[in-house]
Amino acid sequence: MFDxxxxxxxxxxxxxxxxxxxKEPEGTVIEIGDFHVLIKNESGSIxxxxxxxxxxxxxxxxxxxxxxxxx
Length: 71
Hints:
Layout: H1 2-8, E1 14-19, E2 26-32, E3 36-40, E4 46-50, E5 54-61
Antiparallel strand pairs: 1-2, 1-5, 2-3, 3-4
């Protein structure tokens, strides 16, 4: 499933994750690794989520060049 995630999402996108724990974090994608995603939320916190925790996702806003300041 993480292959599908990596196909749908790219660095700079603002996403909402649906975790298997029930939490729903949102933020800008900073990095996508082989088994994790790193996102920065609106308060500036950076969090890493392992692929096994991700049950689903929404792309709230696709990356554009205007978003350079958020990375």
